[in-house]
Queue: 2 jobs
Job 1
Amino acid sequence: DSGVTQTPKHLITATGQRVTLRCSPRSGDLSVYWYQQSLDQGLQFLIQYYNGEERAKGNILERFSAQQFPDLHSELNLSSLELGDSALYFCASSPSERPNTGELFFGEGSRLTVL
Amino acid sequence: DQQVKQNSPSLSVQEGRISILNCDYTNSMFDYFLWYKKYPAEGPTFLISISSIKDKNEDGRFTVFLNKSAKHLSLHIVPSQPGDSAVYFCAASGLGNTPLVFGKGTRLSVIA
């Protein structure tokens, strides 16, 4: 158990809809990262927050947005969903502000299926 | 363009033998490399890392080798055990505020 909690574990929705994925980091970790893993793809970095502020941004679509709340949990909002958004979405946390130091602790992921 | 490449999608090894998983990278600014292991229905977990100032790092049965001139690293597992069967991701990071870049992963199957 990494200590990172993601909900929901599975989500099935239709094209055009909007969903919210939630992540609670490990106790004490201030950084939250979101990664997307599509079929046969590696983990694609989407965005990082540190203590409520955006720290780094990857190839995150404009239809996607995220935020980190004062209690440090984070939400990833996906809107106007397309079939290609079907993927496993991982949240990870770390105590470090810099995204390139140390290990990340991953949650079990949220599997999104868009029909 | 993939900056971190794991060219073998899968690898099958007999129990007790050595498993060698390979990873190539293109960005010469990468200076820190990690391996993660992922079991089905679980998130990736950190396995071992290496800084670019080293060429080898060992942790029990796991050893990572780094060849900076070839921009290549490898993970050796000796001896391989059935519980090592998982997907292994190579990841790299560089200076500044750059996040970890992951490869596509290699699925290792250790056969008893």
Job 2
Amino acid sequence: QSVLTQPPSVSGAPGQRVTISCTGSSSNIGAGYDVNWYQQLPGAAPKLLIYGNTYRPSGVPDRFSGSKSGTSASLAISGLQAGDGADYYCQSFDSSLSASVFGGGTKLTVL
Amino acid sequence: QLQLQESGPGLVKTSETLSLTCSVSGDSIRRSVEYWVWIRQPPGKGLEWIGSIHFSGSSYYNPSLKSRVTMSVDTSKNELSLKLTSVTAADTAVYYCARVGEYSSSSIDQWGQGTLVTVSS
């Protein structure tokens, strides 16, 4: 049971927009800690996609965007491409656990 | 270009100690803005933060693993190390070393390729 809750799977057709939610609590996202997002392609290490809730590292397309409100955060992917099929993870810090925590991951299927 | 490479035994016996090394190239481990972390991922499952360490030696461990984990830094070799004692099958996972700090104080911006460690009797 992950501290941050993500839907197990989402899907969308090429060109569509999908969102992935990350729900936390008052001891992590709701406490103001940053949310980061990672993309993990099959057989590869995770890659930083969004940091500080909304910022993209250099090289990440602007099709990827992040937002945060209250105790939740979201990752939006617009203009879906076949290569976006991957697992996506959110990450934050939890003050009651004194630990960095990850969501359980969401598998994105591009139909 | 920063590169991280994990190495160590791929098979560890139950109740023994898992020991891994992470070789860092393309950047000095002594850069003060950075923390170095270990993350693991059981086969088919999600990511778990093991702990973070600064080159100064200050470290923070996942409370669920704290009693069994030791992380260290060897600045002369530009290497990190991880030791996990009294392992069980639940510790079977791909272990990643990674860097925190290039973009923010919490985001993991560079990852090693990971190394699979299987725990078996």
